Amino acid sequence: MSALYLYPVWLRLWHWLNAVVFFTLLATGISMHFALGWLIPFEVAVPVHNISGILLTLSWVAFLIGNAFGGNGKHYLVNIRTLPMDLVRQVRYYVYGIFVDEPHPFHVSTEHKLNALQTLSYVGVMYALMPVLIISGWAFLFSAELPETLFGFGTIWLVAMAHLLLAWMMLLFILVHLYIITTGETPTTNLKAMITGWHREGTSDEA
Ligand code: HEM
């Protein structure tokens, strides 16, 4: 049995508060997009969505600061040289190895807690998708101040399409995220780590 402390308090607090805000945005956003007034009345969904968007922005900035100064940022550095082979090994494991009980190709350590696929997806979500989602949300909030057209298209239409596309991509990320976190040594190994901070392993290697 080994135990590694991988998720400091600030990171766990950020993660779970961020998840609550994220699902609030998803529920209110879906309710407005599909006009599901019976689910969440429009006059409630709009202000709750706007306030949650502001909270998500603050949460994202807190994550950037925490990562930059809290030591966690090292897990977000992509090694371009080893990435392609690490990715191939990891994807092969997820689509084949895991089903035939192969040992996990990645070993969790305090220096490397995320495998190549996790690193790439978290970097993609936190440093690429999230900022664009947030910017498109703020653009929506201040759409009255925007020019009427941009590159020959209606600006609000462009903003709406970007916001919608990003929201769908984030929903896709969450579905994959929820599956991948269950692929640890036991289905709850990673979840317990994100709750307690401690990544505990029994006999086999896993992520
Ligand atoms: C109920 C919803 C969620 C659950 C149960 C969950 C669970 C977990 C677990 C168990 C981990 C640690 C294992 C790992 O790193 O793979 C993790 C890490 C992470 N999750 Fe989630 N998550 C949820 C929602 C979210 C949302 C909404 C986001 C962002 C939009 C998110 C972003 C992340 C990130 C960036 C990490 C890596 C943190 C780090 O170690 O630097 N999660 N999540």
Which bin fits the share of residues in helices? 55-70%
Output the strand order for the largest sheet: 1-4
CATH architecture label name: Up-down Bundle
Hetero groups? protoporphyrin IX containing FE
Please give the domain count: 1
Distance between the termini: 15 Å
Mean model confidence by pLDDT: 94
Order of helices and strands: EHHHHEEHHE
Structural Rg: 19 Å
CATH C-level label: Mainly Alpha
Structural class: mainly alpha
Work out the number of β strands.
Answer: 4
Number of helices: 6
Largest sheet: 2 strands, antiparallel
Shape: elongated
CATH topology: Fumarate Reductase Cytochrome B subunit
Taken as a percent bin, the fraction of beta residues is: 5-15%
Low-confidence stretches: none
The CATH superfamily appears as: Transmembrane di-heme cytochromes, Chain C
Itemize the secondary structure elements and their pairings.
Blueprint lengths: L1 E4 L3 H25 L8 H28 L13 H13 L20 H26 L7 E2 L2 E2 H26 L8 H8 L1 E4 L6
Antiparallel strand pairs: 1-4, 2-3
Describe the structure.
It is a single chain. The strands form two sheets. This protein has a two-stranded antiparallel sheet with strand order 1-4. Strands 2-3 form a two-stranded antiparallel ribbon. It has helices spanning 9-33, 42-69, 83-95, 116-141, 155-180, 189-196; strands at residues 2-5, 149-150, 153-154, 198-201. With 207 residues, it is mainly α. It is elongated. α1 (9-33) runs antiparallel to α2 (42-69), α2 (42-69) packs across α4 and α4 runs antiparallel to α5 (155-180). The structure holds protoporphyrin IX containing FE (HEM). Protoporphyrin IX containing FE binds at residues 7, 11, 15, 18-19, 22, 72, 75, 114, 118, 122, 125-126, 174, 177, 181, 190-191, 193-194.
